[in-house]
Amino acid sequence: MFRIIAGSARADGLKRGATRALLLASTALATGIFAGAMVNPQTAQAQAQVSRCTLSPTGSQGRSPPARTFAWVNVVPSFPTATVTCDTPITTNNLSPAQLFVPSAPAPLAGFISPGVTVGGAGLSFEVRNNLSNSLSVSNAGTVTTARALNALQLIGSGGDVVYTGNGSVTNTGSGTSPLPPEAETTYGALNITNTGTGNVFATIGGNISATGGTAIATKTEKGNSTININSIIQGIGSVANPVISATSVTGTTTINNSGVIRSTNGDAKDLAISSPVTTGQIVINNAGTLLGRISLTDGNDVFNNIGTWTASDGAGPAANFGGGLNTLNNSGTINMASTFAGIETINNGVGGVINAGNIPGAGSAMFTTSKVQTVNNVAR
After folding, report:
1. What are the tens digits of pLDDT across the range 33-44?
2. What three-state secondary structure class fits 102?
3. What is the mean pLDDT of the chain?
4. Rounded to whole angstroms, how far apart are CA atoms 193 and 252?
5. Residues 313, 295: contact at Cβ < 8 Å?
6. Domain range list for the chain
7. 345 neighbors 366 (Cβ within 8 angstroms)
């Protein structure tokens, strides 16, 4: 059921070592982390485990519903778990967390969803708690899905970097109806990544991310930065409350590199594609793919570099709200606008750049207008 990775430790005498082994085995059963066999007292302190997603909050395998949340809560070098692996299809329904221990403060922690594996029910959450600075990386080669008012896949750090990678899919098919059930999180959708302190967020997304009633991707940092690399289809409801991508940072910078498709589930240019729910921080968008929908950015010095195709129209707000700060749009691709630009100081339309104004079906007589532009440089040919 578990894989034990053992290393060396100093010998403390036969009697003392045997006592320690018994204590370790007792602790393992009490905390829900099963050693699998009596360990050698000379190697007890250095062992590290790989837990499976079938672990329940009480540590039993199959005796109670599997846990949705795996939370590293403290440093216990004598009995650590560094990795959680989902290698068989599973339905998670238990919202009480399975508590895990880390081997040391700097030790990296990880979660894996294996190819071909579907995790359903309440989805998955990997969390580093109690101000531990361990980094957390989650690799998804399978499928994580839920229809509940939860984040289908949630990653939470507490100061160490948080990294998401993989070609697997993440889906939330919940309707988002009110009132929400008791387990509902503050915001919910498909993929949610949060970090505190100076911790950064990195997401390289090769699989489709979809939320029919919520936000497809949400990132949140304090002093750290977020980088989101998109090579697939990202779609969410696209409302003001639930944009397709929600990027929050207190003082850091969020960089969105899109080589895929970002759109609402309705495929409407009036829906909100990228937004920050706060005015702090900075957002940099590098679009080499397809972006369909409005943007609403921060009061930092935001930058939009477009070499792909961006189509937007006025909806519940302007098609492009750059907020305060000194903001720049650099275009060498195609922009289709029937809309208003708000808060943009500089537009650079480079070689090959095309801006089509007022040609979006369903936009009526709306045209491309802006009230704040100070500089327009046009060298397109």
Report:
1. 333 333 333 333
2. strand
3. 81
4. 15
5. no
6. 7-47, 48-298
7. no
